[in-house]
């Protein structure tokens, strides 16, 4: 754990009353868990993966699993809460995010040129882009005006046009969990965290819960070309999730996601401090609309995790005036909101982060060796 932070300090304020899904590393291998009334239950004998457990949620209770104990027992073993689910992300879902992406594009990844461009664009489109609803006649009129002014951008297209940006953030099993190191490319000189709420969606396309995520972003790479999005977004240890997925119930619903305020703090090794907030009620597209667009003409038989985007775009100078923010190795990033808890990760380069070696073949081999795959098959065919 970074510093003196304990797992209980990272849980929602009402963690004793919620129902949570997660994964832990046991001596035998990774296992899905449910946490109910603060008690942890190993669910691997019922559903050996997080993805399978999600599909069984309507039919099983936490107490059907093997009781492990209280949350202190899993503090050092907590993994990313997803395994077989695809990890998808939506970009440019907030007005300010759209402006920052246009700035990246026009500055060609040069942080020093960004300040002047930022001021000019905000003066021209700041108010109108915040008020327009994507895909409407008003949005089309704004697009026409911006094209006429020579200010149109592919990023504004997904900000106010009919189609949301949806991309694949990380391969299956490549996400890291709370307290794990997150990575930035060693050759990036302008980058930042992206604090986001992440929906967990089942195979039927229903959002079943939410967690926190860090969609680490390389602004210099994407700014040079949108075709570098893959390099900007998908690198070793560049996607963190956790600490647990809070499952929707009568007390925690999609409206809690819609109204969440997501806080971000970055503590640098040199004493630097940055704080910010992303308000989900400022999102341009409803979270369930983003789910719908992700499912458009595509299926996800193991479900998916969906990053909803962020309002936060750090522009506070760190080292020199006009250069804005970029990460340093040793930064501690904390993303939080009261009903989902706090996700903390220290920053390293992707080269120095723990290598990703446990893939699908390794997981299937592990589960088969534990007799879990055959047990599940027998139960499902009985």
UniProtKB/TrEMBL annotation:
The lineage of its organism: Bacteria, Pseudomonadati, Pseudomonadota, Alphaproteobacteria, Sphingomonadales. Transmembrane segments: none annotated. One of its GO terms (biological process) is small molecule metabolic process. Keywords: Metal-binding. Coiled coil: none annotated. One of its GO terms (molecular function) is catalytic activity. Pfam families: FAA_hydrolase (PF01557). Belongs to the FAH family. InterPro entries: FAH, Fumarylacetoacetase-like_C, Fumarylacetoacetase_C_sf. PANTHER family: 2-DEHYDRO-3-DEOXY-D-ARABINONATE DEHYDRATASE, FUMARYLACETOACETATE HYDROLASE DOMAIN-CONTAINING PROTEIN 2A-RELATED. This is Fumarylacetoacetase-like C-terminal domain-containing protein. Residues 164-348 form the Fumarylacetoacetase-like C-terminal domain.
């Amino acid at each position: 754990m970074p510093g003196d932070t304990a797992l209980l300090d990272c849980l929602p304020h009402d963690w004793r009353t919620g129902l949570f899904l997660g994964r832990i590393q046991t001596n035998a291998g990774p296992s899905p868990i449910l946490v109910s009334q603060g008690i942890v239950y190993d669910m691997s004998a019922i559903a050996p993966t997080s993805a399978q457990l999600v599909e069984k949620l309507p039919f099983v209770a936490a107490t059907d699993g093997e009781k492990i104990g209280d949350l202190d027992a899993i503090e050092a073993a907590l993994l990313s809460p997803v395994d077989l689910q695809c990890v998808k992300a939506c970009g440019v879902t907030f007005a300010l995010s759209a402006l920052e992406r246009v700035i990246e594009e026009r500055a060609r990844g040069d942080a020093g040129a960004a300040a002047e461009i930022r001021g000019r664009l905000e003066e021209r489109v700041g108010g109108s882009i915040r008020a327009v609803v994507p895909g409407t006649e008003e949005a089309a009129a704004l697009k026409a005006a911006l094209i006429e002014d020579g200010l149109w951008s592919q990023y504004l297209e997904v900000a106010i046009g009919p189609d949301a940006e949806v991309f694949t953030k990380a391969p299956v099993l490549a996400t890291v969990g709370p307290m794990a190191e997150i990575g930035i490319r060693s050759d990036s000189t302008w980058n930042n965290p992206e604090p986001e709420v992440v929906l967990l969606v089942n195979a039927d396309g229903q959002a079943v819960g939410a967690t926190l995520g860090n969609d680490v972003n390389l602004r210099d790479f994407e700014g040079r070309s949108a075709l570098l999005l893959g390099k900007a977004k998908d690198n070793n240890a560049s996607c963190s999730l956790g600490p647990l997925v809070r499952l929707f119930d009568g007390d925690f619903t999609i409206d809690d996601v819609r109204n969440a305020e997501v806080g971000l703090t970055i503590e640098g090794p040199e004493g630097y401090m940055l704080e910010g907030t992303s308000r989900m009620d400022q999102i341009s597209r409803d979270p369930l609309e983003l789910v719908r667009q992700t499912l458009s003409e595509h299926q996800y038989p193991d479900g998916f995790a969906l990053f909803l985007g962020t309002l936060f775009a750090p522009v506070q100078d760190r080292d020199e005036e006009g250069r804005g923010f970029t990460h340093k190795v040793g930064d501690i990033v904390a993303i939080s909101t009261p009903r989902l808890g706090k996700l903390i990760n220290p920053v390293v380069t992707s080269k120095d982060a723990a290598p990703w070696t446990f893939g699908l073949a390794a997981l299937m081999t592990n589960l088969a060796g534990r007799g879990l795959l055959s047990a599940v098959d027998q139960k499902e065919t009985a």
